[in-house]
Amino acid sequence: xxxxxxxxxxxxxxxARKFLEARCPITSTRSVLDNDSxxxxxxxxxxxxxxxxxxxxxxxxxxxxxxGHVELCALAEELGRVIAPIPFxxxxxxxxxxILAFGSDAQREALLPGIAxxxxxGCLATSEREGVILPExxxxxxVTGKLSGVKIxxxxxxxxxxxxxxxxxxxxxxxxxxxxxxxxxxxETIKTLDPTRSAARVEFKDVPCERLGAAGxxxxxxxxxxxxxxxxxxxxxxxxxxxxxxxxxxxxxxxYAFGRVIGSYQAIKHKLADIYVQxxxxxxxxxxxxxxxxxxxxxxxxxxxxxxxxGTHAYDFAAKENLHTHGGMGFTWEVDCHLHLRRARQLGLAxxxxxxxxxxxxxxxxxxxTL
Amino acid sequence: MDFKDSPEEAEYRARVRSWxxxxxxxSRINRTIGDEDxxxxxxxxxxxxxxxxxGYACTTWPKEWGGAGGTPTESIxxxxxxxxxxxxxxxxxxxxxxxxxxxxxxAAGNEADKKRFVVPAMRGEEIWCxxxxxxxxxxxxxxxxxxxxxxxxxxxxxxxxxQKVWTSCAHYSDLxxxxxxTDPGVPKHKGLTMFWIDMKSSGIDVRPIHQAAGSSxxxxxxxxxVRVKDSxxxxxxxxxxxxxxxxxxxxxxxxxxxxxxxxxxxxxxASRLPGVEGKGSVxxxxxxxxxxxxxxxxxxGLKLTRLRSxxxxxxxxxxxxxxSIGKVVSARQTQVLAxxxxxxxxxxxxxxxxxxxxxxxGFQQGFFWGAAMRIAGGTDEILKNIIAERVLGLxxxxxxxxxxxxxxxxxxx
Lengths: 371, 413
Ligand SMILES: Cc1cc2nc3c(=O)[nH]c(=O)nc-3n(C[C@H](O)[C@H](O)[C@H](O)COP(=O)(O)OP(=O)(O)OC[C@H]3O[C@@H](n4cnc5c(N)ncnc54)[C@H](O)[C@@H]3O)c2cc1C
Description:
The complex is a heterodimer. By secondary structure, chain A is an alpha+beta fold. Chain A has 3 domains: 7-120, Orthogonal Bundle (Butyryl-Coa Dehydrogenase, subunit A, domain 1); 123-215, Beta Barrel (Butyryl-CoA Dehydrogenase, subunit A, domain 2); 219-370, Up-down Bundle (Butyryl-CoA Dehydrogenase, subunit A, domain 3), CATH 1.20.140. Helix content of chain A is 54%, strand content 15%. In chain A, helix 1 runs parallel beside helix 4 (69-81) and helix 5 (88-102) runs antiparallel to helix 7 (218-254). The mean pLDDT of chain A is 97. Chain B is an alpha+beta fold. Chain B has 11 helices and 8 strands. The mean pLDDT of chain B is 90. Chains A and B meet through helix 7, strand 9, helix 8, helix 9 and helix 12 of A and helix 7, helix 8, helix 9 and helix 11 of B. Bound molecules: flavin-adenine dinucleotide.
C-alpha cells in the first residue's frame, strides 16, 4: 500500500508546474477568453504534445510515451491549476481513453499516434437536449454505416478532428467514431459559461462512421468511458481548487479592513479552513480513483463516482469562496476569480452533473449490498 | 499509488486473519464510550494483553519498548481486520494512554519513566487519563490554574492544588498526565509544567459528572495538597505547554474516526423503512439517495485521507495539522447521519432503543455523542483555527493575554 505519488511522479509534476508557469500564464487563458474567434491556445497545445503529455497514457507502440495513468493524473492536476485553454480533457481523458479501452487494433493504430503527436483533437458527443439523457433515449441514428442527428453541447466539437458519437442503430445504443472532416458534419460554435473552452452544436447528415466496441453495448461503454474520464477530471478539479485556496489565502494576507488583514478575521479563516478540508478529501478520493484507473480495478465505478463528486464539490466551493474573499474586486472581469468559477462549472457539467453521479454511486453501492 | 497489499502485506494480513480467527474474544464489549463497567474493562484488558503477546498491540512502537517495530501499514492492516470482526471499539479505554499520554512520555519523559510506563500501558495493565481541561481553561487550556508549588521541606517534591474537569475515564484510571501552573508570574504559556500522577495518590478526589447522553464517563478531579516527586515531571519546568502540544497533536491523530454507525448502517436501515409516500423504501427516495452519496464520499474521503497521513508517517514525515481534518468532518457527520436516521424513523424515532449495538440504538447514541465529539479534543472552531494558522499560515487570533503575566490577566469565570 502506498497512498501518494512516487518520487518520479513528483518530479514530473514539479517539472510540469515549472513549464506551465512559464508557458501558460493566465494571459494565455485570457487570450482565449477575450477572443471569440480563438478556440484554444494552439502554441501551448503543440508544446504539450511535443513533451509527450497527450500520449502520456498511450503505449509506445502507438506513438505514446507510455508513462501511465498516474502520471497523466499528475499532469491533469497541473493543467487544472492554470485553467489551461486547450482541448486536453476532450482529447486525452475522454477520446484517447475510449479508443484505448474499446478500440479495435486498427482503430488504435489509426488514431492513437495522432493524439500523441497533437494532430488529432478528439471529442465525445452525447447530449441532445436539456436534462439527463440516457443512451436509449437518444435520437441520433446510424443506418447502414451513416450517422444522422444533432448533438449539443459538444465540448471542443468545433475544433475536433474526430468524434465519438453516442447513437442508436438496429442493435440499440452504440458508440461510433466519426471523422469530423466530412462535408456532412455541420458545426457551429456556441457560447458557453466558460469561454476558455470551446463547444459546439454539431449536426451529422449521413456521415460515414465506424462502430466503437460491441454492438448494442453503448450504455455500458459510455458508463466506463465516463468513469475513466471522471478520475482524470477530478485531478484537474483538485488542481483548480488548490489554486483557488492559494489565491484566496494570499489575498486575505494582503487586504486590510478595519485596521487589520482580512485573513485575521475568523469568518475568513474558517472559510479557508473549510476549503482546505474539502480539497484534501477530494485529493484523497482522486488518488483512490487514480489507483483504480491505473490498475483496472473492479472498484472503478465507486472510486470514479466518489472522485467526481468530491472533485466537483471542492472546486465549485473553492471557486465561489475565493471570489467572495476578494470582495468587489472578485466580481470584476479583470481579476481571475471568475475564470475558476467558470472552469469549475465547465468541468462539473461536461461529464454530467452531480445529481447524475450521486445516483450512479448509490446504484453501485446497492449492487454491493445485494451480493 | 497502490491501494492493494504488496505480497508481504498480504502475507501479514493472512497471518493477522488466522490469528484473529483463533483468538477473537468471546465476550465482546457491546458498549459505547462512556458506558464501561468493570466487566467490559476486564474484557478489554484481557484482549489487549493477548494482542501484546502476539505483537499486535502498538504495532509500530519500537521493539526496545516492547512494541512490534512494525510499519504503519501493518498497524492499519491489523486495525482493518479487527474492525471487520466488530472488535473496533474493544480498545477505547486505552485511547487516552496509548494514543496520547504514553506517546507524550515517549517523546518528553525521562528514561526511567519510559521503562516504567510503556510496556504496562501497551499490555493494557494500566489505564491513563488526560488531566488538562479546567473550569476556566478548555479551548484555552494554557490558562490552566491548578497550581504546583515546590514543597518547603527541601525534598524537591511538588504540592498540587486545584481542579481539573471533563476528565474522561478518571474514575477507573491508574495514571494521569497532568498540566499545572508552576509560575503565575510569567505569561500563561511559559509558566506551565507537565507531570504524571498516580490516580490513587492521597488528596485526589474524583467525582463523576452526569453527561448529556445519560452516562457518566467524564469527571471532576480535585487536588488537595497532593504531593508528587520531582522525578514525576515530564519535561522541563516551564515547558509544560510544549509537552502538552505533543499530547494534543497525538490526540488529533488518534480520535480522527467517527463514532458509531455510519453510511452502511444507514443504508441498511433505509432499505427496510417505508418511503415518504408510503410506497417503496426510504432507500428508493431520491432526496435520501443524494445525501447518502455525499456521506459515502465524505466517509471514504476521510478514510483515505487517514491512509495518506500514514504514508507520510511511513516515509518519515511527521503528520502535521492536516490530522485535524478527521474530527472536523466526522464529528459533524455523526450528528447529521444520526439526525437523518431518526427523521426517517418518523414519529418512532423518539422511542429510545437502549441496545447500542443495534442500528437504531447506535444512531441514537450517535445523536448525542456527535455533539460531544465536536467539543472533545478541540472544538470545531479551535480545529479550524489550527488549520487556518498552521497549515494555511493565516494570522493568529488577536490575544489580549499573551504577553501579560498570568496572575495579572483580568478574567471573569
Ligand atoms: C466527552 C468529552 C470528553 C472530554 N474528555 C477530556 C479529557 O479526558 N481530558 C481533558 O483534559 N479534557 C477533556 N474534555 C474537555 C474538552 O477538551 C473541552 O471541553 C474543550 O476543549 C472545550 O473547552 P470548554 O469546554 O472549556 O469550552 P470553551 O472553551 O468555553 O468553548 C465554548 C465555545 O466557545 C468556542 N470558542 C472558544 N474559544 C474560541 C475561539 N478562540 N474562537 C472561536 N470559538 C471559540 C468553542 O468552540 C465552544 O463552542 C472532554 C470534553 C468532552 C465533551
